[in-house]
Hints:
Helix content is 83%, strand content 0%. By secondary structure, the protein is mainly alpha-helical. The chain has a single domain (2-122), classed as Orthogonal Bundle (Rna Polymerase Sigma Factor, Chain: A), CATH 1.10.1740.
Amino acid sequence: xxxxxxxxxxxxxxxxxxxxxxxxxxxxxxxxxxxxxxxxxxxxxxxxxxxxxxxxxxxxxxxxxxxxxxxxxxxxxxxxxxxxxxxxxxxxxxxxxxxxxxxxxxxxxxxxxxxxxxxxxxx
Length: 123
C-alpha cells in the first residue's frame, strides 16, 4: 500500500493506509493524553504529516515510522499546551492583582521591588 501510494500518489491508497493505522495511532495518542479531543487532533496531525513526508519513507516498518511521527506530535502539542497554560496562569495572576485594593497592590509592588534588590537573579 505504502509503496503504491508513493508511486501513484492516489488518495485511495492513502485512505487505505489511514483505515489500517487510524485506531493504532489514536490509541497511542490517547495513552499520551487523557483528553479524547487532544488525541483526535494529534491523530489528524500525524496523518497530515505522514502524507506530506511520505516521500521520505524509504522502506522498513511503516507502522513504526508512523508511530514515531505520532509520538513527536504528541510531545510538540504537549509542550505548546504547557506553554499556553503557563502564560494563562501569569495573566490570571496579573489580573488578580488588579482586583486588590490600591494599598495592597502598593505593598505587593514594594515587597517585590525590595526582594529584587536583594536577589539579583530575580530580574
